[in-house]
Amino acid sequence: MIDEVQARLAAAFENAEIAVTGEGNRFEVRVVTEAFTGLSRVRRQQAVYAAIREFIDSGAIHAVTIRAATPAEG
Q1: What domains are defined for the chain?
Q2: What would the pLDDT profile of 7-61 be if each residue is shown by its tens digit?
Q3: Is this model's pTM higher than 0.90 or not?
Q4: Which of 15, 17, 27, 37 is the most buried (most CB within 10 A)?
């Protein structure tokens, strides 16, 4: 499941640094991309949720912690 989540995020955020960890149906996601420049924390999280919504809706992901940042923020 980690590989599938990572692939979805990579498709949604071109040239992003992406890290996915977790087990079962609980995951931690870190996405660092220029695409987040100028976006609020909420908008960034919404963009990440949108990329993995199918997994959330199906129950494959029950809980996800998101760290969404620009390269300048690390």
Answers
A1: 2-69 (3.30.300.90)
A2: 999 999 999 999 999 999 999 999 999 999 999 999 999 999 999 999 999 999 9
A3: yes
A4: 27
